[in-house]
């Protein structure tokens, strides 16, 4: 087995054949067997294998985008389960973007934020209020609901509003550190939820616990985005953009400042890093991703209410980051995908299966034990096991290694040096 | 408006004292662990919750066996309190052994994450067992000490309204005071208490002075968790209905109380708990009136968290804490 893997590692052409065959097989099996969730998941996992191949980054990206934008929707579109597959894929995308946002705060800057879902809620309500008749209650001008075309502007607005709240939270938080920070953010998350839950009086802004119903779906060139299969592409584009931004940020000046602050605040300060600005920046950037995804979430669900934004959601996103590996972008993507699929597909499928078994009288599983209710248990277990035995996560973060000689010899200019370093990062 | 606030004041004070006593004892658990390990034991709220469930289960089985009617109520309560505190104390020690000790030299972030994991695990474990046994995870205990006592506050000053209390209030208050006084005595006057204070001051030096640090830490967890579990029983008796998710918010507020009193300071935590309980009840009773119905009683949690945030910003060392300076 190991020998084969070694051969595979060295031979690029063999890798191409294997991955090509893998994608083709899973594609055909999903195309033919529409109801097979396994085939769907296997096709998705081809991206993971792609990550481990030794192609250049550009090739990986091209194949990855091809699989996600053409092959996956095409293979899934042949049966009735199409929309439910796309729904799962869309939610996976939303959670990946959020987990990447939290990864900046927790993984890069080392600030444990337990109220992250608050920013998601802020984004969702920002769009939800103005895309329903709700805004008529307190806005002196304008006619609401705004049309679906405003969705695209609200993506930006959601970002900005969430970032502002991120800074607002950040300012008091800067004076506390470490474990206090976790508690304060936890409190903040609860405060935001309670406020949204009760902001129906004196002026009805959020409609309280009833939530906002029939949010306008987005519109582009007269096409209304109603179905998950359409949202899938919106999320995909935003996600690709997010990944691009996150990767650029990671190696930028601010990204390195975040890592320095994470390792040692006092030392970082001594090296001339402005502590306040760096931390605020982490909060703002992390929050803005979450806020943007909140807008998408509101438009996709067409319904916003406070119960979607509980502490459990915050912890779920944290589990994604811890599982994948703090600070590691590919790791967090993997972690988010795994947790979301576990939540949406595996647990529900397992519950259905067990229900069928107990209906047919094979075994009797008490309702209390049904896997769909075991989320907290599973998440708790993941957190403990990973913190104890693998704190670096499934795909640990790697720092780029620079070849000192190459840099000093001046053969390559700075830009090339950067490219080379990235290659090292990817190819291990 | 002020008239109304004054009228309800006696009732507010009584309810606030009951809640404050609960906060105070749970806060002790946070503050003791923080004093020794500089770690926020997130799972402490869950230990409190487990205590409430264990205690209620014991009381329910007592009444199922018909023991409740055959022995004096107070004796039954005492038995349940002792049994529960031993169970939760051992639970706390186990958590420390499994989840915190291997990580004692790891970054704080990692320890916090295991603590959150433990608390989720406990929540679901308790939910699972209760649901399996009862079919529903919301548990209502046998009603004990339900006699109403009227306190005629209006005879003190005519501006007050009379207050009424369940007789369990006195049980809660007396037990809480006894527990706090005993703990205070234990920490300040006994040899083990001295060892605990020594470890809190400087772990390495204490170890050099032949203090068994691991034992002291385990003992701290045992005492903190036992107190937390016993408080859970008191909470269940006072408020009747419990569910597996009461621990998190209550733990958060108890932590607020600990911070308010100066984290690491045992007497401060007691004081902070009482103050927070009074403030919260005061807010719950008066926020809607003072703000003309704009802010409902639901905002009492927001109020408590705002206190936490304000204290952390302006006086992070708390009311009685010492300022600590971090050195490189």
TrEMBL record, chain A:
Q: What is its main location?
A: membrane
Segments passing through the bilayer: 12-31, 37-54, 61-79, 85-106, 111-130, 150-171, 178-196, 231-249, 280-300, 306-325, 374-391
UniProt keyword list: Cell membrane, Membrane, Transmembrane, Transmembrane helix
Q: Which GO terms describe its molecular function?
A: branched-chain amino acid transmembrane transporter activity
Q: What membrane topology does the UniProt entry give?
A: Multi-pass membrane protein
Its GO CC terms are: plasma membrane
Q: Where does this protein reside within or beyond the cell?
A: Cell membrane
List the Pfam families. BPD_transp_2 (PF02653)
At the top level of its lineage, which domain of life is listed?
Bacteria
What species is this protein from?
Anoxybacillus ayderensis
Please identify the protein, giving its name as recorded.
Leucine/isoleucine/valine transporter permease subunit
Automatic annotation (TrEMBL), chain B:
Q: Which UniProt keywords apply?
A: Amino-acid transport, Cell inner membrane, Cell membrane, Membrane, Transmembrane, Transmembrane helix, Transport
Instruction: Give Gene Ontology CC terms.
Output: plasma membrane
What does the entry give for GO biological process?
Answer: D-alanine transmembrane transport; L-alanine transport; L-isoleucine import across plasma membrane
**Protein's UniProt keywords contain Cell inner membrane:** yes
Location(s) in or outside the cell: Cell membrane
Q: Which GO terms describe its molecular function?
A: L-isoleucine transmembrane transporter activity; L-leucine transmembrane transporter activity; L-phenylalanine transmembrane transporter activity; L-valine transmembrane transporter activity
CDD domains of this UniProt entry? TM_PBP1_LivH_like
The protein's superkingdom reads Bacteria
Which positions are tagged coiled coil? none
Which residue ranges run through the membrane?
12-35, 47-68, 74-95, 107-126, 167-187, 216-239, 245-263, 270-290, 302-320
Membrane topology summary: Multi-pass membrane protein
Give the similarity note: Belongs to the binding-protein-dependent transport system permease family. LivHM subfamily.
Protein name (record): LIV-I protein H
């Amino acid at each position: 087995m190991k020998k084969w893997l070694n051969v595979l590692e060295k031979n690029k052409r063999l890798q191409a054949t294997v991955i090509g065959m893998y994608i083709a097989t899973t594609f055909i099996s999903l195309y033919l067997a529409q109801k097979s969730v396994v085939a769907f998941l296997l096709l998705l996992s081809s991206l993971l294998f792609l990550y481990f191949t030794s192609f250049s980054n550009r090739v990986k990206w091209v194949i990855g985008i091809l699989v996600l934008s053409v092959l996956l929707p095409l293979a899934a579109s042949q049966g009735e389960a199409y929309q439910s597959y796309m729904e799962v894929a869309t939610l996976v995308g939303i959670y990946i973007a959020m987990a990447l946002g939290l990864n900046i705060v927790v993984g890069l800057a080392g600030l444990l934020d337990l109220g992250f879902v608050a920013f998601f809620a802020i984004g969702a309500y920002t769009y939800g209020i103005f895309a329903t008749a709700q805004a008529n209650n307190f806005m002196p001008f304008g006619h609401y609901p705004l049309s679906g075309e405003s969705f695209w502007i609200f993506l930006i607005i959601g970002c900005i509003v969430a970032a502002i709240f991120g800074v607002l939270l950040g300012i008091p938080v800067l004076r506390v550190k470490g474990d206090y920070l976790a508690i304060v953010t936890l409190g903040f998350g609860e405060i935001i939820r309670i406020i949204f839950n009760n902001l129906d009086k004196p002026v009805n802004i959020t409609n309280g616990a009833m939530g906002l119903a029939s949010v306008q779906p987005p519109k582009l060139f007269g096409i209304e985005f109603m179905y998950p299969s359409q949202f899938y592409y919106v999320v995909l584009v935003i996600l690709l953009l997010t990944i691009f931004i996150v990767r650029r940020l990671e190696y930028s000046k601010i990204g390195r400042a975040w890592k320095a602050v994470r390792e040692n605040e006092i030392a970082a300060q001594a090296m001339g890093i402005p502590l306040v600005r760096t931390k605020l920046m982490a909060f703002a950037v992390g929050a803005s991703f979450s806020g943007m995804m909140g807008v998408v979430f509101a438009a996709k669900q067409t319904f916003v209410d406070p119960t979607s934004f509980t502490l459990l959601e915050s912890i779920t996103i944290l589990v994604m980051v811890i599982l994948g590996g703090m600070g590691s972008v590919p790791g967090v993507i993997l972690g988010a995908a795994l947790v979301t699929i576990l939540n949406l597909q595996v647990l529900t499928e397992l519950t259905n299966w067990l229900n069928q078994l107990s209906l047919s009288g094979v075994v009797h599983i008490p309702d209390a034990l049904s896997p769909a209710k075991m989320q907290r248990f599973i998440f708790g277990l993941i957190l403990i096991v990973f913190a104890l035995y693998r704190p670096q996560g499934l795909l640990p973060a790697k720092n780029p290694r620079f070849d000192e000689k190459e840099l000093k010899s001046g053969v390559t200019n700075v830009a090339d040096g950067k490219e080379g370093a990235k290659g090292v990062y990817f190819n291990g | 408006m002020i008239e109304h606030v004054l009228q309800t004041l006696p009732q507010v004070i009584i309810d606030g004292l009951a809640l404050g006593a609960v906060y105070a004892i749970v806060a002790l658990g946070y503050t003791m662990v923080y004093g020794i390990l500089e770690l926020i034991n997130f799972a402490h709220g869950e230990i409190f919750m487990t205590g409430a469930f264990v205690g209620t289960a014991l009381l329910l089985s007592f009444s199922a066996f018909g023991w409740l009617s055959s022995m004096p109520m107070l004796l039954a309560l005492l038995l349940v309190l002792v049994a529960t505190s031993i169970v939760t104390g051992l639970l706390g020690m186990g958590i420390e052994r499994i989840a915190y000790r291997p990580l004692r030299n790891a970054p704080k972030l990692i320890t916090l994450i295991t603590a959150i994991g433990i608390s989720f695990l406990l929540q679901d474990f308790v939910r699972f067992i209760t649901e399996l046994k009862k079919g529903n995870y919301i548990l209502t205990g046998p009603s004990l000490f339900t006699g109403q006592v009227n306190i005629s506050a209006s005879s003190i000053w005519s501006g007050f309204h009379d207050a009424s209390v369940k007789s369990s209030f006195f049980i809660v208050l007396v037990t809480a005071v006894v527990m706090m006084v005993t703990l205070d005595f234990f920490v300040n006057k006994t040899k083990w208490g001295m060892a605990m204070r020594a470890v809190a001051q400087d772990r390495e030096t204490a170890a050099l002075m032949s203090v068994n640090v691991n034992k002291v830490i385990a003992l701290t967890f045992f005492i903190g968790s036992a107190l937390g579990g016993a408080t859970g029983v008191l909470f269940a008796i006072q408020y009747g209905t419990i569910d597996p998710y009461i621990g998190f918010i209550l733990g958060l507020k108890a932590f607020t109380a600990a911070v308010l009193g100066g984290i690491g300071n045992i007497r401060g935590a007691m004081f902070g708990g009482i103050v927070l309980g009074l403030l919260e009840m005061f807010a719950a009773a008066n926020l809607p009136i003072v703000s003309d119905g704009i802010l409902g009683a639901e905002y009492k949690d927001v109020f408590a968290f705002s206190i936490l945030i304000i204290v952390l910003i302006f006086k992070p060392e708390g009311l009685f804490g010492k300022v600590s300076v971090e050195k490189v």
